[in-house]
Predict the 3D structure of the following.
Amino acid sequence: MLNVFSLPPRYGRLRRAAVLGIAACAAVASNNTLPVPSADPRSERLEAFFNAYDCPAPLHVEDYLRAADTHAVDYRLLPAISLVESTCGAFGKMNNRWGWASAQSGFPSVPAGIEYITTQLAENPRYKGKTVKEKLFTYNPYPHYVRQVERLMQQIED
């Protein structure tokens, strides 16, 4: 029986190519049998939340998560605020879904607004170092507003 290792030395390149080809095939086969990493469950939660309230697309789920992770802010905070302030942008103006600056200013895009407000909630001295509840009271000092946003944040998690 002839195999690649029984070939004469002048077929060295062929031997190496065969061995490398077999190794490559084994690597591809083993990669296909590895478990697929699970998706971030927060994405699914935010999508379900936005869809339950018929929020207009695009939902910007990944933008919310990226900004929250970058600035260590609760990922549920801005989505919940957006629902209260503008029904997730259905009634927002100038890409301002969060009522920022009493809805008198805007942003170049929704992702830019997400990034800016998340940065403010994390770094601005008015918000920095405060709990979520304290941040909400600073954002809007009405107790019913704070309770409403907290209730929506809990819905996202449930």
In short: The chain has two domains: 4-33, 41-157. The longest helix spans residues 12-33. Residues 41-157 form a domain with the Lysozyme fold (CATH 1.10.530.10).
